[in-house]
Amino acid sequence: NDVSSLSPEDAKARADQAYLEAGADRTRLCDLCQQWEPGPEGACGTCKVIKGPINPKGTCNLFAKKT
Description:
The chain is built from one helix and two strands; from the N terminus they run αββ. It has one helix at residues 8-16, and strands at residues 36-37, 46-47. Strands 1-2 form a two-stranded antiparallel sheet. The longest helix is centred in the first third of the chain and has 9 residues, at 8-16.
């Protein structure tokens, strides 16, 4: 879950979209979002919009439910 390699702009974008490692609303988790792409088994995935590692049980303001 290391974000130290992100540029200041990418880190700010993550914060601006209120990315959280653990979402309280179980219906808006990253692994239920169209933008989320799974990582290797047991690892964080990625997002098509937010840079850096993305926890499957995380959440942000850009949530778009998979169809």
